[in-house]
Amino acid sequence: MMQVFSAPPDGLQHAPHEVRLLAAGHQIGVREVVFTAVHDKETLMLAFLAGLGLTERFGRNWDALYDVLTDPQSRPARLALVLCDYALFRRRHATLGAQLETVLLDAQRALAAEGRDLWLLIEERESDLRHR
C-alpha cells in the first residue's frame, strides 16, 4: 500500500497506522479532532475548537471553520487533520457529515491552489471496523 504522505492530499483518506510517526518523518503537522461526543453542529464546532487549539473567539460556524483551516498564519503549510471516530459519526449524522465534508474539501482545494497541503485522515477504532 502506498504511504499516504508520499502523494498530495486527495479527499478524505484512511489514516495509516502510526500516522503521527509517519507525519513527523515527512515534517507534517498533525492535529486530531475527536468525533466521539459529536451529536450536533455545536458539539462538532467544539470538537474542532479543542482539536485545532482554537480560542473562544472561534465563530463556531462553517465559514469560521473554513477560515481557520486555510489561515496561513495559524496553520503549517503541511497539515494532517486526523478525524478520530469519524466513521461512526458519519453514519449517525449523514447531513451534518456532508456539510462538514464540503467545508473540509473546499479548504483542501483552496490550500492546494496555494501550494499547501491538508490531509484529511479518518482514523477508525478496531471496534468500528468490525461493525461495517
Automatic annotation (TrEMBL):
Phylogenetic lineage: Bacteria, Thermotogati, Deinococcota, Deinococci, Deinococcales
SUPFAM superfamilies on file: Barstar-related
Gene3D superfamilies: Barstar-like
Top-rank lineage group of the source organism: Bacteria
Identification of the protein by name: Barstar family protein
Family indicated by similarity: Belongs to the barstar family.
InterPro entries, alphabetized: Barstar (IPR000468), Barstar-like_sf (IPR035905)
Pfam families linked: Barstar
Barstar (barnase inhibitor) domain ranges (all copies): 30-122
